Amino acid sequence: MVFKMPKPVTIMGRSSSITNSFVNGIIPCIKPTDMEIETALNILGMEKNEVLCAYCGDIATEWDHLRPLIVDKKPTGYISEIHNLVTACGKCNQSKGNLNWREWINGDAKLSPKSRKIQNIEEKVELLEKYEKWGNPVKIDFEEIVGKELWGKHWNNYALLIKEMEKCQETSSMIKELIDIKINTI
User: Among 141, 148, 34, 149, which residue's Cα sits nearest to residue 79?
Assistant: First the structure.
């Protein structure tokens, strides 16, 4: 049996986690009522006692944002609330990321329903389209709410942190290079 070696990690390889933190740290979460959850599951063709992934049909383990919270490192304005959340398994949620669900579900991304050869994708798409039409998802203009100055300060902090991470990456790379040289002489 061949085991995969761990992939080398870089400090800048975590910049998307920082971006997610800067957006998710300000995103409100509106807790749904039991009736809203029941309605959502009903639209997705499910019952409370058998909650499945809306994308592939596996056992659901979490809720996924149907419409992404972040696109191109910027908040979309959507928030965490029932009209923007669907049941998902971890595979689908991780694979979909911030992609448009329609393109992703029929695309070739690793672990997408199409790439996993999930049956009845068309039926799942129909249910998700029906779900999208249910209610109006909350979409807000964060800058308008908090003001240009505070919003700018938030994103300036983000830029400063990314710049510091770049400096840290330079130091880390020098350290790694010296360690690699030493290891290769052993």
Answer: 141
Structure confidence by residue, pLDDT tens digits, 89-139: 999 999 999 999 999 999 999 999 999 999 999 999 999 999 999 989 999
Report the length, in residues, of the chain. 186
Q: Output the pTM of the full model.
A: 0.84
The rounded distance, in Å, linking the Cα atoms of 131 and 137 is: 11
67: nearest Cα among 121, 15, 139, 124: 139
Q: Are the beta carbons of 44 and 132 closer than 8 angstroms?
A: no
Residues 6+ away with beta carbon under 8 Å from 132: 66
Residues 83 and 134 sit within 8 Å (Cβ to Cβ): yes
Question: What's the CA gap between 77 and 86, in Å, rounded?
Answer: 17
Buried b (16+ CB within 10 A) or exposed e, 104-129: bbeeeeeebbeeeebeebeebbebbe
